[in-house]
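User: tokens in, sequence out, please.
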């Protein structure tokens, strides 16, 4: 869960920097990609019931 929250925070920061700074629009796209990865990770963990492998 901490990993997903960290990725969401990173995505927000990258998105804000990408929007505010001139010429750094690619950071916005990287932020969106990180957000998508965080959503995929959270979806996979939710579907597996939050169990850790090997326990």
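Assistant: Sequence out:
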């Amino acid at each position: 869960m901490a990993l997903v929250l960290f990725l969401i925070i990173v995505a927000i920061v990258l998105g804000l920097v990408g929007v505010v700074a001139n010429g750094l629009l690619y950071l916005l796209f990287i932020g969106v990609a990180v957000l998508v990865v965080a959503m995929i990770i959270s979806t996979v963990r939710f579907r597996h019931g939050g169990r850790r492998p090997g326990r």
